[in-house]
């Protein structure tokens, strides 16, 4: 059985990757003057305050939330799945890999299952940089 701490770690890791991907695209389009929270909200029938909450943290995002936000920005994610090898399960290197037209640096963390915090969750350590991309049409 997969330990609860490992399940929590991988859930949080995926949530944070998706949030970073969406936020990066929003920042890119916003800086280019192509989108703002009001326009994004109008495109998906929400209030700007809701967009602010979603962009601030991924706490209660659903797949529909992710789809709506990316569609409103004229984007869609490129998703790949890869197996974890035995070494990655022991010392997991978080690598964010997707294809697309924009690239920014993301932090890569290393999980050391033998070093847990007070709640029994794996400790994380920043070890390198990686590419993160989204494609826009």
Provide tags for this entry.
137 residues, 4 strands, two-stranded antiparallel sheet, alpha+beta, disordered C terminus, elongated
How would you describe this structure to a colleague?
It is a single chain. The chain has one domain (4-136). 44% of the residues lie in helices and 20% in strands. It has helices at 4-31, 37-44, 48-56, 63-72, 86-90, and strands at residues 75-76, 104-116, 122-132, 135-136. The protein has a two-stranded antiparallel sheet. The termini are far apart.
Q: How is the secondary structure organized here?
A:
Layout: H1 4-31, H2 37-44, H3 48-56, H4 63-72, E1 75-76, H5 86-90, E2 104-116, E3 122-132, E4 135-136
Antiparallel strand pairs: 1-4, 2-3
